[in-house]
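Researcher: Please translate sequence to structure tokens.
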Amino acid sequence: MGLEEIRKLKEQASLPKQPKARKPIAKKSAKKATQESIAKDVKEKTGGGELERWFQARRKEMSGYCSHCGKKTTKHQDKWFRSSIAHILPKRLFKSVATHPLNWVELCFWENNCHGNYDNYAIDVIEMNCYDLIIERFIVIYPDIDPKERKYIPSTLLQYVKNETDT
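Model: Translation complete:
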């Protein structure tokens, strides 16, 4: 190596390095995006799943007001109306009646979050203004509940059903 080459190397070493071209990390992989696209196409062609059809049917029955506090619900909001349809018996535990036509009550989501409070047991069923409606609907739903799922029924509801069937 000659002096001239060494001088050039030193000059280049003192220059700032060029940053590497970075590729942004995709929020979704190409595979995941394709899967979601296919699922969306299937959903559109079949008119949504059973649960979506159930939500659409319940929307037609909604009043637009919370059954507990009377505040407005999300009935008229296409993106959020499902938030005001509270399952009396949670669909994750009671798959046999997840889409039963009476397994719901209309509760506000944005105003007082009655739906969230009901789901998280912050409001006891007995304290709800729509308690009679919940009991009435539960009694009709009860025979359709899979016997394996009955162990998940809240004691308040189960006790009431036992009292009703004994009399």
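Researcher: Any highlights?
Model: Residues 43-166 form one domain.
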